[in-house]
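Changelog note: in this version the structure field was regenerated for every chain. One regenerated record is shown below for reference.
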Amino acid sequence: MTYMSQEGYDKLIAELQRLESIERPKASAAIAEARDKGDLSENSEYDAAKEAQGHLEDKINRLKIAISEAKIVDTSRLSTDAVQILSKVEMTNLTTKTKMTYTIVSENEANLAEGKISIKTPIAQGLLNKKVGDEVDIKIPRGTIRLRIDKISI
């Protein structure tokens, strides 16, 4: 089971619909066009089109699994007492004095450009269940960082 926001769930549904209604027919058309070019045993276009279709079908299947395992979190029932999934955490890196803000989301919703990090990342794992004012040492690939939680919101 994967906990996620309604927004994240809606994005998965939209992406699945796009892949099934637009990309799948394109892949089938590419295969048909390549097949029309003759001998399939030496037709690299056909092989590439079949491989692309395989990747597309794999992506569709992974999306279907993610959707079937999704549990939408009712944000009205979330608390800002401690960090949890869908918490927006404002913190300070105590070494560099840099302020940063991340929202902790499911793996499918993670998007660093939007400030959304996966609950499975070391930073998110280190912040879970911590409270405002807590200082935590988190081991990341480049070493250890020390963060202070300044604010938790939803």
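Spot check on this record: Helices lie at 6-35, 44-69, 122-127. The chain has three helices and seven strands.
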